Amino acid sequence: MEEIWVFIEQDEGIIEESSLGILGKARELGEKYGFKVVGVLLGYNIRGAAETLGRFGAEKVYYINSEHLSIYNNETYFRVFEWLIQKYKPNTILFSATRNGRDLSGRIAVRFGSGLLAHVIELDYDDEYNLVGKVPGFGGNIAAVVRCIKSRPQLATITPGVFDVQVFGGECKVENIEPRFDLEPKRMKIVMRERGVSIDISKSEKVVIAGMGTGGDLGLAKKLAQLIGAELGVTRPLADMGFASRDIQVGSTGVSLKSRLAIILGASGAPHFTSGIRDCDIVISINKDPEAPIKEYSDYFIVSDIFEVIPRLIKLLEG
Ligand SMILES: Cc1cc2nc3c(=O)[nH]c(=O)nc-3n(C[C@H](O)[C@H](O)[C@H](O)COP(=O)(O)OP(=O)(O)OC[C@H]3O[C@@H](n4cnc5c(N)ncnc54)[C@H](O)[C@@H]3O)c2cc1C
Fold first, then answer.
1. Pocket of ligand 1 (CB under 6 A)
2. pTM for the complete prediction?
């Protein structure tokens, strides 16, 4: 039986949750099209983590245990994947569109001449078992359907948070694979590691999202967020320009939200952005343009200048 692999991303033994959501989606596809779902986990002291993957949809796990794999590095992770792919010839490999997932999948695609669907928000196969994904495309104005044409393995990166983690029963075979080559990276050595403070807003109940209408001044958005107990999010241009961390960018190349409440300040509503808010329960947008496309995605649409309405709202909330 051909295999769908899911790259299970970990960092010092902690599994990245979006990989588990992808495992569940892979299981759905595997059951529909007759593929076996395999979690591929590289790391150090990861046997325990490998054994949990059956619960999230894996029918088999390949894990490679080495101190040189404890933290992601492109050189060794790629070499291991190159070797595994030649050995087992998977049909499909799925990655979370995290920094590491994007980095690794791109190099594998070039090495094997594979089709790579980037940042998909939906995934399926056509009747010739080619991978088909939905991607916000052409500047974000349409949801494009893209397909891998007859390349194997075929690859996709999936926007983090798009697929919910699911729980499955059944057997899962866990195999420790030992490559017969030196795993120590030759070109790069990590000398020191400093953890930044990274925030995961994909599970936040309430989020205030600042768009370009703020002009990069996040003071009002932060204050409003603090007063209502919400996290801060931003549209991509604000992250691109360095006004905020990429961790809190909402949209197809950022995170997808499932919040109860999203308040959006000065964002136009490009599809690359709205794909990240489509699962929010209540969306309130404030925009000075009465025709801004975000209106279509909002439960409440307030036509106003944020620099007028938000200070008043803050004053009210401060009582
Ligand atoms: C491959 C690709 C991936 C992308 N991924 C993402 C992604 O993940 N997330 C993302 O956000 N974007 C993404 N984009 C970019 C996306 O297409 C849009 O360009 C972006 O979302 C626009 O950001 P914005 O709405 O903040 O800015 P703009 O489109 O410039 O909109 C600003 C809005 O603010 C309003 N405004 C201005 N001043 C005020 C004021 N004082 N008060 C009230 N309203 C005001 C304006 O009327 C306007 O509607 C991607 C693009 C590409 C090509």
1. 139-140, 211-213, 235-237, 249-254, 266-268, 270, 272-273, 286-289, 292, 305-307
2. 0.74
